[in-house]
């Protein structure tokens, strides 16, 4: 059915994990599939498989990545993903210099170790020109949390070039009525905002929230505290960049409650940066409620995951769903796959219901 041509903004840990996964599921030179269903929510999506995804353009602003071959840049510092699959083929793509704007946090320029942010001394490329010349159909946005202006810049470039936008970070584009309308008018399919993990803090918190609700237990208060050691957590030490992130993660849980909790009784968000954790993320979750006759119920849980591969499992489905929409000439926000793979979609849908809608979308019986 042809390759799905993807551009990536932000050649960080998430991009590295995604490419490792694509290479892992590829048939390779011996023609034997490697655990084709292991860790995938969908291996075949309307005839598209993981190995059909091809990166044709990439943008970053770090000196260690800009101008480098894409596959080499994936291994450059400050990336710190677990090397789950390292036999990555050489890429013909060179990483282009993107616009700086607010795509980094100032405190990261002076950090003491190899996580120091080093902005490349280069003139930004013409992003629209690169998207057109590369033949990109989809732009995957992996910019750091808090990159409001930079994300809006890439969204505008997509509107001008007809390229689809998959927004994996918490700037509200696809879930913002004005942005959504513009993509709808241009008949460009888009997916967003703020990618979930396959089994991560948010999806687990949502699942337990629904369990409490379905079993008649009233939730009185809850928190979710996360620690990690990758550049995402280092970036989020700057609390001024976290407003949309906290809204996104909190809304994902609140949307399942009949009566939302007051602000004092719910706390969801990143907690701290622990350098030696690298790409490992640890979530501490507590829920308190009342069951039969008001008797107290409490739950505490610790979840440990590799952060970036965890989101790649959702990104690989979002990319293929977006290509199906392009094949079918469907434009605007894709409701089902956004609800299934994103924390802050245009429409919040319980995860089990969203999964069924995605199945119908793949089959062509659900319009979007």
The helix/strand order is: EHEHEHEHEHEHEHHEEEHEHH
Gross geometry: globular
DSSP strand tally: 11
> What is the overall number of helices?
11
Q: Nearest-angstrom radius of gyration? A: 20 Å
Instruction: Characterize the quaternary organization of these chains.
Output: single chain
Major β-sheet annotation: 7 strands, parallel
User: What proportion strand?
Assistant: 15-25%
Unreliable segments (pLDDT under 50, ≥5 consecutive)? none
Averaged pLDDT? 93
Identify the strand order in the major beta sheet. Answer: 3-2-1-4-5-6-11
By secondary-structure content and strand pairing, the structural class works out as alpha/beta
User: What is the end-to-end distance?
Assistant: 20 Å
Helix content: 25-40%
Describe the structure in your own words:
By secondary structure, this protein is an alpha/beta fold. The protein has helices at 13-25, 70-73, 127-134, 148-161, 177-185, 201-214, 231-235, 243-254, 307-327, 335-341, 351-363; strands at residues 4-9, 53-60, 95-97, 138-141, 164-167, 189-191, 218-228, 266-273, 280-290, 296-306, 332-333. α1 crosses α9, α3 (127-134) packs across α4 (148-161) and α10 (335-341) crosses α11 (351-363). It is globular.
